[in-house]
Amino acid sequence: MAVISNGTTLIDNGALDAAVSTGALTLISTSTASSSSSVSITSGISSSYDTYIFEFTNIHPATNNVNFLFNMSTDSGSNYNVSKVTTAMYSYNAEGGTGFELGHNNGLTLSNGTGNQTLLGSLGSDADQSVSGYLVMYEPSSTTMVKHFQFRLNYHNQADYTQEYWVSGYGNTTSAVNAVTFSMSSGNIDSGTIKLYGVAN
Amino acid sequence: MPFISNGTTILDNGAFEASLGNLVFLSEQTGTNVSSINFSNPFSSTYPVYYFEIIYLRSVNGQNVTVNFSTDSGSTWATKTTAPFSCQTAEPGGENPGTRGPQYSSSYDLASSTTEQTLGTINKGGLDTGSDSRFSGNLYLFEPTSTTYHKQFMGRGNSYAEYPGSTDCYYNGYLHDSSAINYVRFLSYSGGIYNIDGHIKLYGIKG
Fold it and tell me: Which residue, of A60, B50, B70, B148, is most buried by count of CB atoms within 10 Å of its CB?
């Protein structure tokens, strides 16, 4: 049975009519960390969408004063070793009003390095401390282009200040990227969620 | 006849009233070796915010990529004031090694100018000319149909720059125009217009 309103078919054959405008942000997967050494997303990154958004909510480390890490794979997660060229800007402000700064952290940048990309440093592990933010990846399945990506992450530095990092760059490969992994420089990811969205046409 | 569930109107008058998501795809423009990629009459008062998704934009001869806005379908271009900035890291062995920034992109800011706003706010040169070298990013435009306010815009992109290396580019500003914007063009401009490749999607964000 079709649902027709004012002459317009809205639902038929068990689905919304193709002419119905729906949201373009499509949830693909939710990954939940629970004392996890890493969170790897090895499915859902394909040619189905041109753009993917990863949403990080309250990623909480088990160990204090650690770095949050990222890498990409072109072989479905067998190896995380994509060459990357990156930049890393930050801003921070201390809770006690003792300092603030906008700058670039040369120590986090990669110039065709294949190791993990450090996304931020000195993440605190107090019960109320975590990192949240997002990552945008553009057409990771391309076999022609390098792979652009952009992070924006805000977190509670263990020294009790708010800090934001903008890490941006490209995976310097023309192979399709089909998996990503996130981890801490020491210890587990105690908790937190990473949602993967595709941005549909 | 409305469809009402538990007192809530789900659909009526040929449309859903229940939310089906706030990011709505509107259109896509694709170009291969074209002088510009254009959006003509893309805006209405339906959405307060519009979002362009710029995917693998490339200047065929390595110039920079830009955007401009018009209130008269591209006959003239809006006056803009902008404050772009960037940071960059070069690949090893390039001509401009190391990291720089964040730095104000003084070569690409505009002060009451109608010229193109550069998206790849690279403080040296343009995009790399390799076939895998592109610019990807986004651009938000706020209430382009307003006839009261100047139009704010902001965005962020990553470019494969000529040195070669990665540049994290931020572009932002406002159009000194209280007329409705009805035309947007993306092109490669550096003293002259150069052809581009790429595709750009336009979304509306519901209020």
Answer: B50
Beta-carbon neighbour count of residue B147 at 10 Å? 11
Angle at B155 between CA A131 and CA A192, to 5 degrees: 15
For residues A74-109, one letter each, b for 16 or more C-beta atoms within 10 angstroms of the residue's C-beta and e for the rest, the string is beebeebbbbbbbbbbbebeeeeeeeeeeebbeebb
Q: Distance between alpha carbon A43 and the CA centroid of its chain, in Å?
A: 14
Q: Count the Cβ atoms, other than its own, within 10 Å of residue B207.
A: 9
Q: Does B93 contact A at CB distance below 8 Å?
A: no
Q: Please write the tens of the pLDDT for every residue from B83-113.
A: 888 888 888 877 777 777 788 888 888 999 9
Q: What is the pTM of this model?
A: 0.84
The pLDDT assigned to B124 comes to 60
CB contact (8 A) between residue B13 and residue A5: yes
Report pLDDT digits (tens) over B173-206: 899 899 999 999 999 887 788 899 999 999 998 7
Name the DSSP class of A116. Answer: P
DSSP character at residue B109: -
User: Which residues in chain A have their CB less than 8 angstroms from residue B100's CB?
Assistant: 104
- Chain A residues with CB-CB distance to B55 below 8 A: 50-51, 138-139
Find the distance separating the first CA and the last CA of chain A, reported in whole Å.
28
Mark which residues 73-132 of A lie under 8 Å from B by CB.
Answer: 85-89, 102-104, 106, 109-112
Half-sphere exposure of B58 (CA within 13 A, CB side): 19
Interface confidence, given as ipTM, is 0.75
In A158-188, which ranges are E strands? Answer: 161-171, 179-184
Neighbouring C-beta atoms of residue B125, cutoff 10 Å: 17
- Residue A20 is encoded by which pair of tokens? 């119905």
Residue in chain B closest to A23 (alpha carbons) equals B21
Phi, psi for residue B108 in degrees, rounded to 5: -125, 5
Report the largest interatomic distance among the alpha carbons of chain B, rounded to a whole angstrom.
69
Token pair, residue A78, equals 């067998």
> Which pair of structure tokens corresponds to residue A10?
């809205």
